[in-house]
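Example 3.2
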Amino acid sequence: MKKKRRILYLTTELSPFNSESPLSELSHHLTRIYRSAGHDIRVVMPKYSFIRDRKYNLREVIRLREIPVPIAGRLTWVSVKSGFVPDTRVQVYFLEHGEYFDREGVISDPSTSEGYQDNDERFIVFCRAAVEMLKILSWQPQIVHCSDWNGALFPFYLRRMYANDNFYKSTKIILSLTDYDRTGSFPPSSVFKAGINPDEFHTGTDFELGGQFSFLKTGIVNSNKVIINGPASTAQFPPPFRKWFQNYIQDNPDNIVQIPFGLNYNIWNPDKDEKICANYSHRELTGKAENKMKLAAKYSLELEPDAPLVGCIWNGTDLSPLKEIVELITDYGGSLVIADKNSDQSAMEKFAQSSPGNIGAVKLLTGLTIKQLLAGSDMLILSPGKDKELLHLKAMKYGAVPIAPNISFFADDIVQGDEKVNGFLFDNNDTASFKDTVEKALELFKNRKDWTTLTKSAMKVDTTWNKTARVVLEVYDAVG
């Protein structure tokens, strides 16, 4: 019989409480799958202002009211409310603190996109409160699974400040990385806030990097295992962290585990999707052709059924790299449907009007319009930038062969040049490489047999969260 575990999942994002992101989806699906398998997995996350008590039927936990938490040489108090992930038995403990967590953003103000100035204090309190909460609750997890720099001080507290505490003596710690833009780098003054003696802060310590207090480095060196998406993703870390982490991986290869991210097939599956005009799968592609012609008609495109329809989801106001691409596509008799992630409609519509009948502009990028775009496109161009919505995986599933920059999640998931090819990669910020790669895809499209093989290959890639969960469970098994 498989060992049933007590698992604490520490996260700052969890679907459906947070908007869709790799972390919120990872948190949701791993916890749901493990709870269904009989593990006692519970979640701890901040209670942001947008998480409503009545909507999610949250209840105050009396014995977890006003937990004293040390911060910057003083005490502050955190209370806890409890609820469940909708339609599951996954229990969630929401940490309440008016000053630190009662906000509309996770790490930045949505109105300005600027990071909160007190993020160091916010996530010091988050991690320390979680440690204290478990002892009061008398619930002893065998594994604590933390995420990103926001949760990276939890491993430090267990390994350093609670090293002699029998309650945590056997607890193993896993740290997942999904945010490759930020490392939680703060000034040395934050060391005191975290309860660390400032005299311990000097070059080469577990928590110092580049003269700053690095939350993420602190968490990594105090965890049993570190989970990453892949080497291309970690290459996106800002220096000097990138260099340090690459050296850490070389020196500690057994501590690193690579996992794929996944999709919710109840939502993203062209075989059952009710939001597209005709269903299809890699076994039967007829329905995709119907979606293609409907998309062309929607945007008044002059497109023949056997000509390429290229979708594009762009991120930024500079559309100049696409001008030559449009000429290239039309030379092959094709058309382009473009959507803007930043909702700059004026620039997008002006661009579409530059070549009427050849370019269509999606007016509003929603879950519905994304599905229609993927179902109708033969291939999908993704602009340089981080793919927070895993659009390349969604494109594969819907048979829109991805054409993406050779960075981050794209490069870890898109395979080209061998029998498992499922897409195309171009050099980031290289206009010539971008054009050459699109032309390579268009040229292959002319050979209908080879293109169909490629489309089916992309659609058959296993992008389910079940695959991810199996790998993570192996990590749990490895640490005990």
